Amino acid sequence: MTEKTDNNEILFDPTASKTERYEKGRAIRKIVPRSSHQQYVPSENREDPVDILIRTSIGRIESLLPIRYTRMMESPFAFFRGAAAIMTADLEQTPNTGIDLQLCGDCHLMNFGGFATPERKLVFDINDFDETFPGPWEWDVKRLAASFVIAGKWRKFSKKNCKEFAWNVADSYKRHMLDYSKLSALQIWYADIDLAELIELGKDEEIKEFHQKRIKKAAEYTAHEKEFAKMTYRDGVRARIKDEPPLIYHPSGNEEDQILKEAEIVHKRYLKSLPEDKQVLLSRYSMHDFAIKVVGVGSVGTLCGISLLMSATGEPIFLQFKEARKSVLEQHVKVKAKYTHQGERIVIGQKLMQSASDMFLGWTNDDKGRFFYIRQLRDAKVKPVLEIMKEENMIDYAKACGWALARAHARSGDPSMLSGYIGDSNEFANSISKFSLLYADQNESDYNKMVKAVKEGRLPIAAEI
């Protein structure tokens, strides 16, 4: 049975057999029926979603907030991507089996994709962990499934299609969790999803050819050299990152030299978070420049940027740093925070969930109380292209995301207990698909409230360049 230590580590009883743990999961159905997961009724005292957005903007860079809200205004789907805090508050009111594990926390379909492992293999996995935290396993499944309905509506698919997308997320999660329940813990830890093999499973030859070309390009892509040619210019003896305001820019005025010195101090702290072999590798490089870079939807307004490292012989490495704030999950779960350093929380959570993490993944902090995590800027990434997906492609992608989530959850959770609870019928998938339709309506209503708040001047927006 899954147990918790005083330190809130999630463990399971090594003395219990897989069959015993499966049966304990199955017994939870009597307390929390699988059909109960179809429910979504807004709480009577539900907080205004605009108030939540305003609260989660506290401490962000004020001048970037108009970009955040402008991006969220694009569509209900764009709004959803930036509204993890809103959905988490709603999920706290939904049925809970009491089985906790490491969550992604912001589990939507654009936070999955292909990337290169340190061994240069291309895998498919979750790739964003800003909100990772231990919590109820159902929350990741529900957010992921709902994202497919919301994205499907944005793409003008029928309600039936959208429901089918969500159903396939949950069904794939169920089937692959059962597979993982039959493996040893070590076998689960070794498991990954080969991107090329995943693409071969699809039946759409046109989309397969499209993705195969992207994989070939990603495998050949020497990210740092190409980014260097595209993003930098020579300023005397030093290479500099090009400004592209408001999305990439240097601190202004007399602050720049001082901030660069502070960045070098922060960089040295980051190096200490890395294994010794990576410290030796990066000791061959020195910091040449850094700039603020606006990224994503949910991250806009947090202090994010890129730093340029150069070796003595002129080889570049670009690192991306992102401000690490408290997870939106923390105030809504019963598990106490284990890490006071938010960058460390993200790095450890990512390593728990991903099949392979970036070799330069580490954490650091400045002297102003801000936490950061750092990774390579780009490393053979293959992002989903929703705009070209047909119905069958969306179904294939839903299955892939459900599979990747099951693999991630199986690492810190108990796949036998989870499989025991979900069972082999369609009841759980049916419930998740119904919930997803209801939550998509809630999300659209919240989006409309945001649009109204913008018109009333409560939220600032500005045209992006």
Question: How far do the termini sit from each other?
Answer: 54 Å
Give unreliable regions as ranges: 1-11
Count of discrete alpha- or pi-helical segments spanning 4 or more residues: 17
CA radius of gyration: 22 Å
Main sheet overview = 6 strands, antiparallel
Report on the architecture of this protein.
The protein is α+β, with helices and mostly antiparallel strands and 465 residues long. It has two domains: 16-219 and 387-455, no CATH class; 221-376, no CATH class. The chain is built from 17 helices and 14 strands. A six-stranded antiparallel β-sheet has the order 9-10-11-12-14-13, sandwiched between helices. It has a two-stranded antiparallel ribbon with strand order 1-2. Strand 1 and strand 2 (10-12) form a beta hairpin. Helix 6 packs antiparallel against helix 7 (159-181), helix 6 (137-154) packs across helix 17 (427-455) and helix 7 crosses helix 17. The chain is globular. It starts with a strand and ends in a 10-residue tail after the last helix. The model is unreliable at 1-11 (pLDDT under 50).
Strand and helix map with partners:
Blueprint: E1 2-4, E2 10-12, H1 18-31, H2 49-56, H3 65-72, H4 76-81, H5 84-91, E3 100-103, E4 112-116, E5 122-126, E6 133-136, H6 137-154, H7 159-181, H8 185-190, H9 195-200, H10 205-220, H11 223-231, E7 232-235, E8 238-241, E9 248-249, H12 255-272, H13 276-282, E10 285-293, E11 304-311, E12 316-324, H14 342-353, E13 362-365, E14 371-376, H15 391-412, H16 415-422, H17 427-455
Antiparallel strand pairs: 1-2, 3-6, 4-5, 7-8, 9-10, 10-11, 11-12, 12-14, 13-14
Helix pairs in contact: 1-16, 6-7, 6-15, 6-17, 7-15, 7-16, 7-17
